Structure formats: C-alpha cells, structure tokens
Amino acid sequence: MQRALSYAAMPALRVPLPFMLAAPCFALAAALLLVWHGEAALVLRWTPVTLCMTHLVVLGFLTMTIVGSLFQLLPVTAGVAVPLARQVAVFCWCALALGTAVLAAALGLGLGATAFRLAAGLLGSAGFVFLSAIGAAIARPVPAGAKPLVEGVRYAAAALAITIAIGAALALYLGGVGTVNAPLLTDIHATWGLVGWVIVLTATVSFQVIPMFQGTATYPRLLETWLPPLVFALLFGWSAATLFDAAWWALVCETGIGALLLHYAVTTVAWLRGRKGKRKPDTGTRYWLLAMGCLLLAALLHFIPFELVFDSVDALPLLTGVLVIVGCAMSAVNGMLYKIVPFLVWYHLAHDERLPRERIPRMSAVLGEAQAARQWRWHLAGLALLVLACLFPAVLARPAGLFLMVSLLLLARDVAAAALLYVRLRGA
User: Fold this and answer.
1) CA-atom Rg of the chain in angstroms
2) How many Å apart are CA 35 and CA 263, to the nearest integer?
C-alpha cells in the first residue's frame, strides 16, 4: 500500500540535521583507531580497542543517524509528530554524543569505574528521553498505510530499551556496581542491539525509503507487517534459551531469525533489480544492494563451522560483525544520507518564503550523484579490505582503516557542505 506523505508536518531542519552532521565523526574516530592499533583491533572481539570501535560505530554513527531520522520520518510518513521535538532532539544529541564519547574513552583508555558510571547515566538518560518521546508519538492513531511502519518502530524501540538496560547493567558492573555474567550478557546485549534495534529498524525504514527514493514497487504487506514482531519474538526466545543453556532451542531461534533476514534481503534485492522503468542504478541503489549482500553473507556465515578452516575462534564473530555493522548497516545509512540530506536542504529552502525562487538550487546541486559515487568507491574498497582483514589482520587492518577514513572524511565533508549551503542561502 502506498502511503500518503505529509511533508507539511516536517520539523525544522535543525531537528534532524545535527545528528547527521555528527555521525560521520564518530565512525571516523573508529577508523582512526583501526589505523593506529592495526592488527590488535581485529584479533579478538573482547579487546578494549575492538569494543571501543564497535560502540563508536553502533552508537555514534548508526544510532545517532537513526535517532535523527526518526524525528523526520514519523511526522512525514505516519502523521505523528514527536512531542517537544526540538527540545528532545537537543537533549538526546548532547547526551548521546557525550555518552558515546565517554563510553568509548572508558573502554579504550581504561578511565576507570567513574567513567563507566557516567557513560551509563548519559546513555541511559538519552535512551529514556528518546523512547518516552517516540513512545508518546507512536501511541497515537495512525493511517492504515502507516501501521506497518509504526509497528516496526515499536518493536525496534522495545529492542533498544532491552539493549540499553543490559548495556547499563554491564557499564555499572565495569564501574564496580553489582555482579553479572559479563560474557553471556555481552552476547545478548550485542544481539539485541544489532539485530533487534539496528537491523529491524533499518528494514522498517527501508520499506518506506526504498520505494520513495529508488523508484521500486511497495514491499509485500506481509513482509512489512510480520518481519519486526517475528524477529522480536525469536530474539526473546533465543535470549531465554541462552540464559538457561538450552542450546537446541537457541539454535532453532537463530535459524528462524536467519531465515527471516535472508527473506528480507532477497526480497529487497529482487525489488531493486525490478525497479519501475528499469532506470540505470544510481549510487543509492548500489549501497542498498551492497547492504543486502552483506546481510545475506552474514546470515549464511553464522551457521558455518568456521573454526574448522581458521585457527582463531573469534574470526567468525568478527567477520559476521563487520558484515552486519559496516557492510549492511553502515552501507544502508550512507546510501540514505546521500538521499535524505539533499532532499531536506532543498525542501526547506524551496519552502522558505523569504528566499527568491531563482536562488533555490536543484536537489542535485545540494549533494549530487558524483559525490555519492566517489564516497561509495572508497567505502566499498574499505569494506572489502576490512572483511579480508578479519582473516589476515596483520597485513590488511591498517589499509582497511585508511580507506574507511577517506570514505568517512568524504561523507563528513559532503554532509557539512550541504548544511553550509543551507546556512549561506538562508543568510544571504
């Protein structure tokens, strides 16, 4: 079902844009750490630098972008505005940015118990305020066409709440408060965060933005409606089985999640390949195809006895994490940023009555295909090197970091240039 879009309900540009401006900076910090530490960053998933890099990307890049996008997406696609959007956005941006920086420093530099407790307070408060505001928005009645989107956001928000609760418990434990089974809870925390929050919300958003920006047909209603609740239920079952050491039940739930993600990825690839009018693929389409390819590969690799081929027992978890975080989620977000940012800047300029019509740039002049294609090439090369670096870290870890640094510098420059163009034209 094609949704009616309410562009008039769009919040001011200063609500979502700061999140999109800040996000590349955190991922760039992670790439710098990879260059600095090299092999040590990709040997074990439990090393301080690996945990630091992971949280910089998942919190600072992915969650930062997703949170900003939801302030924009819900009013336009579902007709429900986030209450006190400007104030909530400012608070969430400050708490999320500072909390991510403190947590990364605590993990990477060993700042001690106080830093972990401060990070838990900052990130917990950001999550509480954000989830309360989003919860109030999606509790309202919505049009029938927007119900799958809103339901998907509800399940992803519930997964985020679980992720935050477990993460806070782990941070407090590292801060000297309480006793927990840290390795077990870390696995559950990571799975809820990556699958329940990032992947489910990415899928939910893709059901809207791929038909809108890539010119495909709308997704099957059955997939839109049932993917989020089924993944959530299976994650809940997997968590219970893991906590109570029920290995067979955990495997059944993992298989179900893998099958659902494979179905989503294959459907998305088919939709992109069969776009209306068979238009020439643009960079946004290439990013989505890359993201779905990485998700397919990660889902398949999860069930391969990788330890029979490579000596390192952490090679498979690291490789799967790279494919999900950098290959799937980062690629999808990169592609969306090169579509959403120029549209937002153009739209707000075009609807500014004080600005002469002849001064309004075309959307392609705000952020064009050439810039997106340049960044895509560096990102693709960096991702390929990073995947191989999981297997051969001594040789390829630093080159992968360098290529990803360039791609993220290009992304930061392009998003900042679009924002500066808006400021310059508004101030002229």
Assistant:
1) 21
2) 36
